[in-house]
Amino acid sequence: MEKGSVKKIFSLYLPLTVILLFILFPFYWTVITSIKPEEELYGAVTFWTKNIRWSSYQKLFTTSVNFISAMKNSFVVAFITMAVSLMASTSAAYAFSRYRFKGRKAIMALFLSNNMFPTVLLLVPLYSIMRKMALLYTPWALVLAYTTFTLPFSVWLLNGFLNDLPITLEEAALIDGCNRRQAFFKIILPLFRSGLVATGVYIFMTSWNEYTFAVMFTNNSSRTVPVALKSLIGQLGVDWGLLTAGGIITIIPVCVIFFFAQKKLVEGLTAGAVKG
Question: Does pTM surpass 0.85?
Answer without folding.
Answer: no
